[in-house]
Amino acid sequence: MEPSPPVIRIALVGGGPFCAELLAKTAAGLGREGIVAPFVAVADPDPASPGMRLAADMGLAVYGDFRDLYDPRLDIQLIIVLTPEEEVLHEILQTRPPRIRILSYPVFRMFWTAIAAEERKLRQRSGEMEAILNGIEDFILVILPDRTVADANLSFLRKMGVSREAVIGRRCDEVYRRRGGSCGGPGESCPLERVVRHGRHERQVQRRSLPDGEVRLYEVNVYPVWEKNGRISRFIHISRDITAWRRQEEELTRRLERRVEERTRQLQETTAQLLHRDKMASLGKLAAAVVHEINNPIAGILNLTLLMKRMLAEGPPGARDLEDFRGFLGLMETETRRVSRIVSDLLAFSRQSRLEMKPLELNRLIEKTVQLNANLLKIAGVQVDQRLAPDLLPVVGSEDQLQQVLVNLICNAAQAMEPRGGGRLTLTSENGPGEGWIRIGIEDTGVGIPPENLPRIFEPFFTTRGGKGVGLGLSVAYGIVQGHGGSITVTSRVGEGTHFEIRLPCSPEGERGAPKKEAAWPPPESSSSTTS
Fold it and tell me: Is 237 within 8 Å of 220 (Cβ atoms)?
């Protein structure tokens, strides 16, 4: 950039030390800003004075008589008197052409003293700022728009192992040992270019190789400094070594991952224990009901056996006795098969078998579960109303787990109706809209659930039955249904009853082969609901 021409042409009268100081400071200050100093000539009778010698070295015109400054060819517009001799000032005032203005020594000295005081303050502040910057451990560069480094703090110089002279005036990419290349790492764009392009602060994490070959990670922030005309005057480039912090972060992440894995393993073990505990609780309920259910056919078999023994004790059986025996044996076979079926279902439910997902007919599973709980429902005075869709689509799931859900819900319904001396349990099944889901409804006419308890009924260990339950049944049921890709909702009115609704996705094969029809899907009326 070419230096700007001076706005006004000034000559100095008096070549003493004050003149030399003025020329040196003004030329240096304006030169840094790209402006030509306005001084064009110096006049003093002593050619060996410091001001005259410096002016000659700077290429200015020098004269022994101040009257030579009046030459129109010099185009002098202002003469500053730098000598305190009053007679010199008076003579200049009497002889100067009207076009040349005069600034007296006392006035200029006053201004110069004020400027010097401000200069000292600026130097002091600059020293303080430099001390602050040098005390910062982050690496700070001041970069000009032409990408040359204007300043650098001590932290940067020490880390890079270079002197200030080796950095100032060089391009930033050369300073970072990437001569002719980008300041960013592989796959990274130059942060300065991005600041210019987007007009805002830029942050990057870069890998840099130090002079000793060590590779370090740096967080780089580049801030633009704007001029009043909207141009960027310089960039503040701040780098921070985050290698140690990143390593600590990675180590902390590894520790957390190990802890999460360990905690997950513990939670899985705890979940398995809770599932087993709830299953055993459900099994206990079933066992109590099945004992009564098995007792009736066994009592019948025992009575028939005693009857046959008594008939044989009375004498050899006749033809009629043999016919009765055949009938008795048929009844005994029927009752024995009934006992065998109940025991088989009970063993299948209690067995801790591996989870096996297969196509299921939920209607059959509902009927089997009702049969297992028949005596419990009878004791509670519950009448069962089954409204099962004959064309219900099959689902893919675990028969063992889904039966556990049904057992929990049916037992809860029986317990809710028992205080009222019985009631009606309605079990429904139907295909959902679009044939993609099936719906199972379990509705009772029991005491109902208070609204404040509805949001919590699926929480583990939440129970309203005191010491009669551990509060895991509905929580386990919720998890099983969700694990099958379905949902379970509940609606209830205090004093009127509760309605549970289970939605499960149907088997893809069943969906493709099912007749396309729209099944009814009426939402039950309720005052409040909870949805999984």
Answer: yes
